[in-house]
Amino acid sequence: MRCGKYNDFVKVVPCRTVADLEALRARHADDIKACAEALRDQTRVRLHVYKVKAADLPDIGSGNPEVAVARLIAELPAVVARGLVEALVGGRHLP
Fold this sequence. Notes:
The chain is built from four helices and two strands; from the N terminus they run H-H-H-H-E-E. By secondary structure, the chain is mostly helical. It has one domain (6-93).
């Protein structure tokens, strides 16, 4: 059984390609705060669901959304390119 923040982020669909990441950014182009939060969620899902080490992820920050978006857009493509090790839940892989 998972605990902590797993249940909060298990429904977040992780970007698996840079194209997915750019599509996510485009979906939130009109709302910089929503864009920052969606990009932060890409870090959170990797941390809490896929158990990627925090040291291997960009800092999500909590300040200025414009700064966060610029930083995450610069740093997340390298994270996405590394791929995900599928987490096991009850003996089955998550999508």
